[in-house]
Write a structure and sequence with these properties.
The complex is a heterodimer of chains A (314) and B (227). Chain A has 314 residues and is of the alpha/beta class. Chain A is 39% helix and 14% strand. In chain A, strands 1-2-3-4-5-6-7-8 form an 8-stranded parallel barrel, surrounded by 6 helices. In chain A, strand 5, helix 6 and strand 6 form a beta-alpha-beta unit. Chain B is an alpha/beta fold. In chain B, the strands form 3 sheets. Chain B has a 4-stranded parallel beta sheet with strand order 3-2-4-5, sandwiched between helices. In chain B, strand 4, helix 6 and strand 5 form a beta-alpha-beta unit. The chains are: A alpha/beta (314), B alpha/beta (227). The interface between A and B is medium-sized, with 36 and 30 residues.
Chain lengths: 314, 227
């Protein structure tokens, strides 16, 4: 076994959560091309404003620069990536290979996801891999990290150190099952959860209440997902077109109630009000800010949400 | 049963380009039941081909024969004399992929073409409507999933569903497609058996990644065929 190296030190996100501070993570979508400068540019807006940034993996099943490569670019910019990996595009061999490669090059957080079905994306006839599912992926990463074993049982020479993330959608039906699914992800070995974008606060309060009752929030860090609405059109789209999304009419009415030029500001205001509530909510340990194609707004949102400055560890 | 769908006519015509004496062989079992490759469908396809080729001034001599089951030697045997004496320059099969291959294997010197696309193991929901139910994965999980197959009916084949894409009981891919895991949950709840899916379904080794065969206990492969 190797001695402590750079690649098996704790991640910044892990340190923030373990220290009991309210975490704030961001999201960055890699480009549909080779322009590294675009990734670096987006990273600049996030640096210092988030504890870690999710690098999406062919999100919505559309081909983009690979998430590990974009993760490395943000590391170069002094930002910590949360490497997203979906089960749609890789089998267990490719997944384990990418985990080793990512860990070797300094990736310390991973978010394990099933992935949107390929039918949504730009290659709808692609063969979906789904060799393993998201819960099995979590268990695989944990086994690699804690037991130093590949899924096959073979020994890993220098096991990867990963802070293991998983997603949770408190709004997808069957609602009563979502807490059980969260429990399964904890049992599989997830260290933290990032939730689907929350708009229906009542339902989320209910979900967290159930998770608290089951004692789950003491076993895992939960980061509440927030996506500010940029426009009324976006809110309508999220409500009607995005599966598993729950956007109450009140949100749309509130956006409609302000001057056209102020809709985006109102969206940010709603998000900040949510964040204020999450800060006080038992069982919530942070916020995952998914400002989709709005990375340049993150400094302003972070400022308004009063989550700055972010903790720094020596 | 096995269901199949007839290939587009243009594709069938293209395959038979250059062949002038063809025997089209139907199958009287599954593909007959699903109204794709039985005696009647063979006759219809042959008529269409004859007309199209005549219009092209490129006539085809096309014959019909439907056997009880193309996946069974006992029934294929009746074709031996017909094919030997017929002098066909191609065979066409309207059986499922299994039948087509067995036919091609029996007459390896004659090109054999598929007239159907085999699409799965399905139930007969109503006349003319068939729904896939099984991917023949060799590791049945129906005991713990309330008799609903997640490998077949979940678009992602998840063993620990439902994913976050469940959309009011439907799958994220379509409002017409019920979410298999939503249904599994509902059925097990009704049976007071949700514990069956509370524990993690661990990663499986896929058993369908290399050709499979089945030899029942007490049986042996005939010596001349065993490799």
């Amino acid at each position: 076994m190797s001695t402590e190296t750079h690649s098996n030190a704790e991640s910044n996100l892990e340190k923030v959560l373990k220290s009991g501070q309210f975490a704030f993570t961001g999201e960055l979508g890699p480009p549909r091309g080779t322009d590294a400068a675009e990734v670096r540019e987006k990273a600049k807006f996030l640096k210092g404003n988030v504890d870690s940034v999710n690098i999406t993996d062919n999100q919505t099943a559309v081909v983009r620069m690979s998430s590990w490569a974009a993760s490395l670019l943000v590391i170069q910019e002094g930002l910590e990536p949360n490497y997203q990996m979906v089960c749609r595009d890789r089998n267990r061999l490719a997944m384990q290979a990418d985990i080793l490669g990512g860990a070797a090059l300094g990736i310390k957080n991973m978010l394990c996801l099933s992935g949107d079905h390929q039918q949504f994306g730009d290659h709808p006839d692609a063969k979906g891999v789904f060799d393993i599912d998201s819960i099995q992926l979590i268990a695989m990463v944990k086994q690699m990290r804690d037991d130093g074993l590949f899924l096959s049982g073979g020994e890993i020479e220098h096991p990867p150190k990963m802070f293991i993330g998983a997603a949770s959608n408190p709004f997808a039906e069957p609602f009563e099952w979502r807490v059980n699914r969260l429990a399964k992800k904890i049992e599989a070995g997830a260290d933290f959860i990032q939730t689907q974008c929350i708009y229906n606060m009542e339902r989320f309060r209910n979900f967290i209440h159930m998770a608290n009752e089951e004692g789950l929030t003491e076993k895992i860090y939960i980061l509440a997902g927030v996506t500010p609405m940029k426009s009324i059109g976006m809110a309508r789209y999220m409500k009607t077109k995005v599966p598993g999304m729950d956007v109450p009419d009140e949100i749309i009415d509130r956006l409609k109630g302000v001057d056209k030029k102020k809709v985006a500001d109102e969206g940010i205001k709603i998000a900040c009000e949510q964040i204020e509530e999450f800060k006080e909510m038992k069982g919530v340990h942070g916020v995952h800010m998914m400002a989709i194609e709005w990375e340049h707004k993150v400094p302003e949102i972070a400022e308004q949400a009063k989550v700055l400055p972010r903790p720094v560890f020596g | 049963m096995i269901v199949a769908n007839r290939k587009p006519f243009a594709e069938i015509r293209e395959m038979l380009q250059g062949y002038t004496k063809v025997l089209n062989i139907g199958c009287g079992t599954c593909v007959s039941v699903c109204l794709t490759g039985g005696e009647k469908e063979v006759a219809i396809l042959n008529t269409e081909l004859e007309m199209a080729r005549r219009l092209d001034d490129d006539p085809i001599d096309i014959y019909a024969h439907t056997v009880e089951r193309q996946c069974d030697r006992e029934y294929l045997a009746e074709l031996d004399t017909i094919i030997e004496e017929g002098n066909f320059d191609a065979l066409m099969s309207m059986a499922c992929g299994v039948g087509i291959q067995f036919l091609a294997e029996r007459y390896p010197q004659i090109p054999t073409f598929p007239a159907v696309d085999t699409s799965g193991l399905a139930v007969n929901q109503a006349v003319g409507w068939y729904e896939e139910r099984c991917r023949s994965c060799s590791q049945c999980v129906l005991g713990s999933t309330g008799g609903i197959c997640p490998i077949t009916l979940c678009a992602k084949g998840l063993l620990n569903g439902p994913c976050g894409g469940t959309n009011k009981g439907n799958c994220e891919i379509s409002n017409e497609q019920p979410c298999a895991w939503f249904r599994i949950y509902e059925r097990l709840k009704g049976q007071n058996r949700l514990d069956a899916i509370k524990s993690i379904n661990i990663t499986r080794g896929w058993k369908d990644q290399a050709p499979r065969d089945l030899l029942q206990p007490g049986y042996k492969k005939p010596e001349k065929m065993a490799k």
